[in-house]
Design goal:
The protein contains four helices and five strands; from the N terminus they run ααββααβββ. It is of the alpha+beta class. A hairpin with a 2-residue loop joins strand 3 and strand 4.
Length: about 160
């Protein structure tokens, strides 16, 4: 049996995309699915309690997008040896210092960051930068998050420096 057949046979046991992802990452079908996360009130800079369901997914998307990739200890001291730290987060901060001639240019650059993030965010069907504008040296944007179940939620990103 070659590697492709072995992987195919292993994935035949999975019933959901999350189970497939877990198996591909060395987990098992019995690994607990993350049901919730801590919400952050980004305007106040404070935790806002624990959320579950669709709200938890949206919070994870926002945290992922706003975390600089490879620069934050996401799971320090866990038995994963911090492997996730190198692959967690987006490239949004790589946009800082670049020159954008128009709102369309920054919208396109942010869409590229969102497109790359979709590879890691398995609960998300799409991320669409609906509108991004440059105000002084800051960017304001609306990102439409479409979950795997088709539900859409708009998230505002306000004040990322460029």
């Amino acid at each position: 049996m070659d590697a492709e057949e072995l992987i195919g046979e292993m994935l035949d046991e999975a019933e959901t995309p999350q189970e497939e992802e877990s198996l591909l990452n060395g987990g098992s079908l019995t690994d607990a699915v993350r049901e919730g996360t801590y919400a952050i009130d980004f305007k106040r800079g404070r935790f806002a309690g624990k959320v579950t369901g669709e709200q938890a997914i949206i919070q994870r998307v926002v945290k992922y997008i706003l975390t600089p990739r490879g620069e934050v200890d996401v799971y320090p001291g866990s038995d994963t040896e911090d492997i996730e730290d190198d692959v967690y987060g987006s490239y949004i901060f790589s946009l800082i210092g670049e020159v954008y001639q128009s709102d369309e240019d920054i919208t396109q650059a942010l869409q590229g960051v969102c497109d790359m993030a979709l590879n890691e965010l398995t609960d998300i069907q799409s991320l669409l930068v609906d509108e991004a504008t440059i105000v002084g040296d800051k960017v304001q944007a609306r990102i439409v998050v479409q979950l795997q179940n088709g539900t859409e939620t708009e998230v505002a990103v306000d004040g990322v420096g460029v």
